[in-house]
Amino acid sequence: MNISELFTGRPENSEQRLHKEVRCYDLLDRLGIEYFRVDHAFADTIEMCHEVEKVLGADICKNLFLTNRQQTEFYLLLMPGDKPFKTKLLSKQINTARLSFASPEHMEQYLDITPGSVSVLGLMNDGGKVHLVIDSDLLKDEHIGCHPCINSSTLKIKTADILEKFLPEVGHEFATVELPWIIEE
């Protein structure tokens, strides 16, 4: 995979960037949030992101966009990238039955993101419709690695800045869950 060097802040030239990516940089800059950036080929799986992590100097978190069976409630789960996931273990903790992955159409409707680009930064687009759920192990990390609403760049942002500056600005609170590293069948 072709990966750039580590840059501080936004690209010097944003003309070739998608509007939704530029809006992420605009918001982070307005909030005074420092971030580092790596540009790369499209990386839409955690496995593809491992090479990016080496340059970024931070782990990229797994971002799962989920919905209840009726598709009336939507959840964005942030968790360590290598941690296994079972919907029933999350469902119990957030008192929601029958969680499944939300459709690409809902992803675009609520987060303005396509599959493989899901990110906490998409919450700037949802109008408060998506519930944010964060695994407790992710909260222990100093930085969060996430996409700026497109999976051809990855950002390294202080976890505290996401929690204390970004989330209040976009009108979001979060629920903390504890998902296991080992899942018994």
Any descriptors?
4-stranded antiparallel sheet, 5 helices, alpha+beta, 27% helix, globular, 5-stranded mixed sheet, 185 residues
Question: How would you describe what is shown here?
Answer:
The chain is α+β, with helices and mostly antiparallel strands. 27% of the residues lie in helices and 22% in strands. The chain is built from 5 helices and 9 strands. It has a 5-stranded mixed β-sheet, covered by helices on one side. The protein has a 4-stranded antiparallel β-sheet with strand order 1-2-8-7. Strand 3 (62-67) and strand 4 (74-79) form a beta hairpin. The longest helix is centred in the N-terminal third of the chain and has 12 residues, at 19-30. 34% of the residues are buried.
Write the topology of this structure.
Elements: E1 7-8, H1 19-30, E2 35-39, H2 46-56, E3 62-67, E4 74-79, H3 87-94, E5 100-101, H4 104-111, E6 130-135, E7 143-146, E8 153-158, H5 159-169, E9 174-177
Parallel strand pairs: 4-6, 6-9
Antiparallel strand pairs: 1-2, 2-8, 3-4, 3-5, 7-8
Compose a concise summary of this entry.
The protein is an alpha+beta fold and 185 residues long. Helix content is 27%, strand content 22%.
